Amino acid sequence: MTSLPLHSLLDKASPPASFAETQRDPEEQDASLGLSSASKDYLAQLPAVLEDISTLLRNTPRDVLGEGSMVQVLSVCGRLQRPTDPWSSTIIAAQAHRILLTLAHDSSSIQSFVDPYIHQIIAQSLRPAFLHTMHPSIHPLTGRRVPWPKEKPSTFSMDQAWKDQYPGTTTLLEWVIDHLTPETLQNDLGSLLPMILTLLEDWEARFVLRALHILQHVLTLISPDLLVQRGIDLVLHQSLRSTCAYRSGSVHGPSILQTSVSLSLQCLSRARPLHPEDVWFRGVDSLYRRAILDNALFIGYDTNAQLALLVSMEQCITALDLPSIKYEKRSLTLLKDILDHASPPLLSPLFATLNTLLQVGYPRISTYAPLLFHLLTRGWLLLDKAQETLPLPRQIILHTSSLLHALSPDLWKSAMDEACRVQPILFTSLCQDTLLCLDASSIPLLSSYFTQIHLGPTVIIQRQACATHPPRRSKPMFLSEKLYGELQETWLHQRIPQLIARKIEQDYDIGGWTTF
């Protein structure tokens, strides 16, 4: 055991400036590559230093340590909690956690022990690192929104002490946020939120993604009333709308896009009851234009990026609701462009997004029936040949059945013909689902179509109003036993499920089909 005092041990345990985060490749997989000799020396001696700190804390009464030393210990341990950081490891993170457990042995949890020191950790360890990069839209004392002037100032600063001089600041911020209570967050929101926004608007994607994860937790602790009263919802929406711009050069681009849209919608949704409706609709509308329609120009043919775009697109369309949906044609054209170069994994989310767009935009979107027809038939052609012998994803079948309703009778028939030609199993499932979910007004179309493709044009279709002539089994308008048998046998021969034949029997036994 060393005889060094606690403050000297803590200085040796703090990550040195040689670990400056701006010097590392953002996408580098091995954190040990390119480390300076000073950094390697630090890593070599750190386990022994942490062991000395742990021993000293066990042998020193709490009242002797003092609040300043306790804050310094917590700050050092907080910086070491992420094993993937270059100044930490699994062993080092475990040692730091054991020190926290030693300090909190008299408390119910680490969070309850840390809570009284949070304000001092923010003031002494976090605020100096962000002193020259604080976000101008949040007042640091009140935590309220500060209106920006017409000439919006740039938030970028070359003086990024949290990267260059204080390695581990981002990890410490994450650790502090994880141990916050709602009451503590409300008191320190003016200090913490500008730091999060600074990370959110950084040029490096890895810090943006970490800021988004921090913000996810913060939103669970902030009440909707506090969001609106301080104007935080508008500040967050504005920052997230800028963050969702796709970063084509980063592997984090798809995750940033999807998480930004989700958080922005979450923020707007929580504040929606306390705002006029036009504020909500303008916010989601601008988010849809920026995150979906504008990003579509830059995502290229990357499958992960297209998947993130489709998921975000469906979330925005669902949030917009029926009265305010716009851009139907641009949205359908975007889906067509994705589908023309899509791989099979994209088909299920693409059909889901298309179905959501149809539900929200119906009946106006049915004016683009030819484009819908192209999307349907093109999607069927892209299904893997291997899937022709396997059950298709149920989601694709259900969404396809719903989309068929928006087509005109001629296009509906053409779509069914195409499904029968290129995807027999899909056609079989469509027949089953369509028969079960179509309304009464659409049954004549379905019945005449099935009769035409399976029994030829010789079948005479007779219609008779039920109100004038109630259906009875003895009426000549009913299917003859021979015709009914041929129809049932033919459908079964075409691999249409037994459920359809049972449906025919039920309708026939009730009184026959008025459409035959």
TrEMBL record:
Signal peptide: none annotated. GO terms for cellular component: cytosol; nucleus; TTT Hsp90 cochaperone complex. Belongs to the TTI2 family. InterPro entries: Tti2. This is Armadillo-type protein. Residues 1-34 are annotated as: Disordered.
